[in-house]
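Database export, one record per block. Field names are fixed; values are copied verbatim from the stored entry.
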Amino acid sequence: METLSLLLLSYLLLLAPNPQISHATDFINSSQIFSYGDAISSSGGRFELGFFSLGSSVKRYYVGIWYKQISVQTIVWVANRNAPILNTSQVVLKLIPPGRLLLVHGTDTNVNNSTILWSTNTSRPVRNPIAQLLDSGNLVVRDAADENPENYLWQSFDYPTHTYLPDVKFGKNFVTGKEVYFTAWKNDDDPSSGDVTMHCDPAGYPQTIIRNSTAVTYRTGPWNGLRWSGTPALSRNPIYTYNLEMDKEKVWVAYHLLRNSVYIHLTLSPAGVLQSETWVEQSKTWANYITVPLDVCDSYGICGPNGLCSIDISPVCACFDKFLPKYEGPWDRTHWSEGCFRRTPLNCSDGSDGFLLYSGMKLPDTRNSWFNKTMTLQECQKVCLNNCSCTAYTHLNISTNPGTGCLLWFDDLIDTRTLSQNGQDIYIRMAASELPVSNGGSKGNRRRDILIGSLLSAFGLTLLGLGLILYIRKKKRKEKGEMSTQQDFELPLFDLSTISRATDNFSLNNKIGEGGFGPVYKGVLEDGMEIAVKRLSKSSTQGLDEFKNEVSYIAKLQHRNLVKLLGCCIQGEEMMLVYEYMTNKSLDAFIFDSTKGKLLDWSIRFNIINGIARGLLYLHQDSRLRIIHRDLKASNVLLDNDMNPKISDFGLARSVGGNEVGANTSHVVGTHGYMSPEYAVDGLFSVKSDVFSFGVLVLEIISGKRNRGFSHQDHYHNLLGHAWMLYKKERSMELPDDHLAVSCDASQVERSVHIGLLCVQQCADDRPNMSSVVMMLANENLLLPEAKEPGFFTERRIATSEYSSSTQGGSSVNEVSISLLDPR
C-alpha cells in the first residue's frame, strides 16, 4: 500500500506544471522558482538575467545581468557580488510577498530555514509582486498591475555595481540621504566591492569624483550646462545626451541613448579608470571610445594648490601667472604637492584688487565653491570682489552665448589644467600691481599715484631716449623685412647658425621638397632631434604672406593630428619655419604609388582617415581659433613613424570668430580637385569647404587614385563621379585599391565610401559637420543618410594650359597649390 502511494505521488508530480522559469518571459512572479540554468530576457532582447561564473581554479557563481545579443559576455550588474555561490545545486532566486527578491541557499519553502545570500528591500507591501527585467537593463520589483516607475518597490538602477548604464540617475537625494554611486570590482575575476568608487559629489557645485578608499584620484570638473568641465570629449553628439538635474531635494546626472542600435559600455575599473566602449559587430569586439583619466594632468591635484598642469610642456607643472612655487627646491625636483602662492598678496581692504582672465581651462575643484544660477558675469565679479575670501569666478552655464550664472571659488585653486579643446574661461583674483592697465591696474590710492608721477618725471628723459633708440631699431628691422616673432607669435627663435649646422649648410642632400614658399630641408639638431625646415625663397612674394599666416595660426594650435611647429628662424633676410620631422613624409607618396601603396593595409588607411577627421574637428570646433584650412589634400597630410596622420600647411588657412562658420573672398586659392563648388565658383569658404576636401581625400585613400586626372574606360567622370556611380549601383566594393583585397573589412570600406560621398555632396548644407563625421566613423551601428549627387560630378576635358596657380584657380594639374608643400 505504501509503495502504491509513492507511485501515485510521483505520477501526480509529473503531471503538475513546472514552476521553473520559462526562457520566453521577462519577469519572475511569486509562484516561480529561478535556479541555476534559468534565464529571463528583457522584452526587446537587449539584456538577460541569469547565473554566471568567474574564477579559474575555484568556480564562483553569481546572479547578474549582461547584454544578450553581444557574443562576448559583458556583465553590467551583479546581485550577490559580495556573497559568491560555491555550489549551485540548492540555490534559488525567489520573489516573496510583500515584494522582496531573495537569493537563498536551501529549497525549504520556509525562507527562515534557508541561508539568505542576497535580498532586496521594499517600501510597502503589494498583493501580486513581480520582478521584471526591462530593456534598459533595469531589474525592477513592482506590483504586476502598476507600471508607473515612481511606484517601483525596488530597482537595480538604485544599486549599480561597476557599469554606468544609460538612464541610471547617478547622484544623491538630500531628503532621504540615498546616494546612487558606482563601485569597481576588486579585479577582473572578482566582482566584490573594491576600493575604487565614483560619486556625483554635490558639495559646492556638482562634479564627478573617483576615489580610491578616501583619496580623490580624479574629478571631471563641474557641470557647465553642456558636459563636465574637464571632459571635452563628452561634447554634444547624435549618439547620446547628458543631463544634470539639481534642486533643493536632489542632484543627479544621467545620459540617454538616442539610438538603440548603439551599445555603449561605460565601466569603472579596479585601477580607477572610467572607460567608455562601443560594440563593433563586424570585429566582435568592444572599441575604446573615451578613457579618463586621460593623462598625467588628470591625476588629482598633481601640481598642488594654485598649480597649473599642462600636458604640452615639460615638466607638466607650472604656477599660474603672477604666482611662485611655495618651495623652490622641491618644486625643481618635481615635488609639486605644496603648490604655489601669490607673488603679491591681495589687498581686499582698499578695493583695488582685480582679475586676470585665463582661457582654455579645466575648472578647479568646486567642493569649496558657491553658485548662483541667475547672476550676470558682471554681478558675479562684483560679488567676488566684495568677499575677501573669493579667489576666482566664472560663468556657471555655457550652454548659451553668452553664458549665464555665477560660480565662485574660495581659498586655493586645486586641480586646474589646460585643455587642448573645449576649455573654459576663469577669472582669477590679483593684486592691483599685478594687473595690466586695461584691467584696472592703474587704480590705486593717491600716494601711489604721486610716487608714480614723480618717477615718471625723474626718468622722463631716460625713457624718451630709450624710446627713440627702440624706434630706430624697429624701423631698421622693418626695412630689412624682419618680424618680431617672439613678441607677436610667442614662438621659440632658432639662430641661423644652429639651423645651418643642422642642415649641413642647406645641403642639396638634405633637401626633401619645394613649393611656392621655398625649399624644405631635413636637419638634425645638436641634441639629436630631427627637424624639417621651410626656408622662404627670396623670390617668393606670396611666400612671405604665407609665412606670416602659418605662424599666426599653427603657433596657437596643439593636437596630435596637426603637425607641430617648433619655432622660427628670422635673421636678416632669412625667414624659416622649423617643424617636427615626419619620418614617412606625406600621404600622397604612399597612396598614389603602386609600390609604397602596398604598405598601407586597410587598418592603416582607416586609422589615417580617422586621424584626419579628428584633426579637422579640432580646427573647426575645439581649438581656441576657429580655423578653416582651405587646402586640405594628400600632400598636406604628413605621416609619422607609426603612420599617424598630421595635417600640415596652414599658409592658406583663415579663422572665423564667434559662431561664424565661413566667409567670402574674391581671392580664390587652393587646389583643384579638392575645392568645393561654392568656393571655386563663388569664393564662399566655410567649414563645409574643408568637409568637401576631406571627402575627396577619403575616396582617394580608399581607391589609391587621384580625383584630379582620374580616368576610366567606361566614362569621363572624375573619381567622385566614379564613386557615386558605384554607390548608386551598390557596387562600392569595386572602388578600393587592389592592394586592399586581402586586408579590407568590406562593411567598413563601404561605410567609409558612403561617408566620403556624404562629405562631397553638391550642396554645402547637405554635408555633415566634422563632429558628425567622427561619430559616423567611430560607430558602425549608426544609420547613415542617403548620399546625394556630389559636386563637380563630371570632369571637363580641357587643356593643361587652363590649369594655373593664379588667383582664379589655385593649382596646377599636378595638384600644387599656391601654398608650400609641407616638410617631409
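Remark 1: The longest strand covers residues 190-201.
Remark 2: The chain has 15 helices and 43 strands.
End of record.
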